[in-house]
């Protein structure tokens, strides 16, 4: 393949620059009704200018100390998630969720099973042997997502400037789908907001 002449390269570069120049960082702080930070909430930003999320993996939810770890995992549509058993007892992982129904029959220590999550939505996990075990897989089509940290905060870079929709998911939210939505306009300089869950 022939190399492009120098003037052609220079004429292409300015066309590529505005996209990067108009990407901003969005910071969201999530509070509970009493003002305490909300951890393990999932913030997703939907933008018509954003590319579709692509799985990069690997993704895993361990069964460890009779619990799903992490308790909440966020993955792009099409991601394959492995469920390794790190306990000395057997587990039977399942979900009846609309986004993905599955049933991983009993398996023991250091064995694993995998599931591909091909539809956006929320998948609640359970163990047929240990009723106390619960977890969630959040499957998203947007690449702009993050889980809130111990301070209830996320910082999401490379958000296209312009109109977006902020979506917050948490099992603590009593709205339909355990989700809050908020329209926003992201300026090139960045955007910050606080979302408070209502009782």
Task: Write a structural description.
- This protein has 199 residues and is mainly beta.
- It folds into 2 domains: 24-51 and 144-199, Sandwich (Immunoglobulin-like); 53-141, Cupredoxins -  blue copper proteins (Immunoglobulin-like, Sandwich), CATH 2.60.40.420.
- The chain is 8% helix and 50% strand.
- The chain contains 1 helix and 17 strands.
- The chain has one helix at 6-21; strands at 23-31, 42-46, 59-60, 62-63, 68-69, 72-76, 79-84, 91-97, 100-107, 112-117, 121-127, 134-140, 145-147, 153-160, 162-169, 179-186, 191-196.
- A 5-stranded mixed beta sheet has the order 6-12-11-8-9, with no helix packed on it. The protein has a 4-stranded antiparallel beta sheet with strand order 13-2-15-16, with no helix packed on it.
- Strand 11 (121-127) and strand 12 (134-140) form a beta hairpin.
**What is the multimeric organization of the chains shown?**
single chain
Uncertain spans: 1-21
| Euclidean distance between termini CA atoms | 63 Å
Q: What is the CATH homology-level superfamily of the largest domain? A: Cupredoxins -  blue copper proteins
| Rg calculated over all Cα atoms | 20 Å
Number of helices: 1
What is the H/E string?
HEEEEEEEEEEEEEEEEE
According to CATH, what is the class of the largest domain?
Mainly Beta
Q: Summarize model confidence as the mean pLDDT.
A: 89
State the total count of DSSP E strands. Answer: 17
- What is the fold named in CATH at topology level of the largest domain? Immunoglobulin-like
The side-by-side strand order for the widest beta sheet comes to 6-12-11-8-9
Global outline: globular
Give the class from helix and strand content and strand pairing: mainly beta
InterPro entries: Cupredoxin, ET_Amicyanin
Protein name: Methylamine utilization protein
Organism: Sphingomonas cynarae
Signal peptide: 1-23
């Amino acid at each position: 393949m022939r190399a492009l002449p120098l003037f052609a390269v220079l004429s292409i570069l300015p066309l590529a620059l505005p996209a990067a120049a108009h990407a901003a960082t969005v910071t969201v702080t999530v509070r509970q009704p009493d003002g305490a930070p909300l951890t393990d909430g999932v913030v997703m930003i939907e933008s018509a200018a954003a590319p579709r999320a692509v799985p990069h993996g690997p993704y895993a939810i361990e069964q460890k100390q009779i619990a799903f770890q992490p308790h909440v995992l966020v993955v792009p549509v099409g991601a394959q998630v492995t469920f390794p058993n790190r306990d000395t007892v057997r587990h039977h992982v399942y979900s009846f969720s609309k986004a993905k129904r599955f049933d991983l029959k009993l398996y023991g220590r250091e064995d694993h099973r995998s599931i591909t999550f091909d539809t956006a939505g929320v998948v609640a996990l359970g163990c047929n042997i240990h009723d106390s075990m619960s977890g969630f897989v959040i499957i998203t089509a947007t690449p702009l997502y993050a889980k809130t940290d111990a301070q209830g905060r996320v910082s999401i870079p490379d958000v296209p400037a312009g109109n977006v929709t902020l979506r917050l998911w948490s099992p603590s939210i009593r709205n339909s789908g355990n989700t809050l939505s908020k329209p926003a306009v992201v300026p090139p300089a960045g955007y910050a907001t606080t979302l408070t869950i209502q009782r």
